[in-house]
Specification:
10 strands, 2 domains, N-(1-d-carboxylethyl)-l-norvaline Dehydrogenase, domain 2, Rossmann fold, two-stranded antiparallel sheet, alpha/beta
Amino acid sequence: MGLPTHIGIIGDGKMGLDIFNYLRSLRLKISLVCFNEAHAASVRKTYEKKQKRALKYGLVDMDTYKFNIDNSHIGYDYGLLESCHIIIESISEDLQAKKSLFAELFNIIPSDCVLCSNSSSLPTEDLLSDEGRGRPIYGLHFFFPVAYKQFVELNLPMVYEEEHKLRLVGFIHLINKQTILLEGSFRFLANKLFLKLQAECCRLHVQEGLSFQIIDSWVKKYIMPAGVFEFMDQVGIDVMLRSIKAYGVNMKLDQTLMVMKGLLGALTEEEKLGVKNDQGFYSYEKGRILMSDKTAETGLTSTQQNRLFSCYLNPIHEVVEKEVMAKDVLVQLVTDYTMNDQDPFDLSNHLQFSYDPSENVF
């Protein structure tokens, strides 16, 4: 089969709409299935309004405008997906909801359609109900914001079809992204690479009394523009908690993650879920963080800093040592993910860091 031209997306949350908006700019036929009729009507109205505005101000010509209107189908009925070559599920990170969704799809979607999940943590085998046994689901993990991220993770199930893999690799190339092909415990690699760093930041807060702000200030100075706690607030505290529970199953991080799970669990019980409800590690107003007035805090000790550097760098070196991917590709992935141009191996050389196999996480 040739390259796919009709793509289905299920889910009109932040990620689903971001994938839709990116793909529909590439002259593909896109079918978006929303949560319900009201959501579909709202998304459709907004989309058509933007297309008319783009035409009015000369951002698109009439041919492009007609193509976009005629080939972007927005509704709430799975029937929109019947002729799709690839379907990407992008609903909330809820195992039972995803299982129910795929169980319904198996009854109406042709067998030659490749089914994918944009899940950031759930192995696709877990998404199969009894009805779907024998039909693979693939992990097609986009990163937010899609337009500015270079990579897409293709997380292969334990049993898959080579033709499906090739179709998905071709699709990722078609949409001007690079494929990170992952199997086994290395699935969801980009997120897993930073788990140990995130866990150590949580430990420093709980066990050594450092504030979220002072830890994030250090992380932003040396590793990535968004601090660890700011990042988790953006993702969602409840989503982070579900994710690390899923990741920990196949990683050597059980004890390391205990403090982090406790911290995230306590916030979830208090319904402090991050930016989406204005309370998490930080407080927010209209999506903007409200920082405290504390200015008298001391910085991290050299021991604390060295531990954070180790938690950041050791998993990166482990991936190279285990030959999961080429070093230059890994550098691109890390810098793309962190939005920081700092090559982690240059940082390792500067710090005279030595890889320690006893610290392995995979």
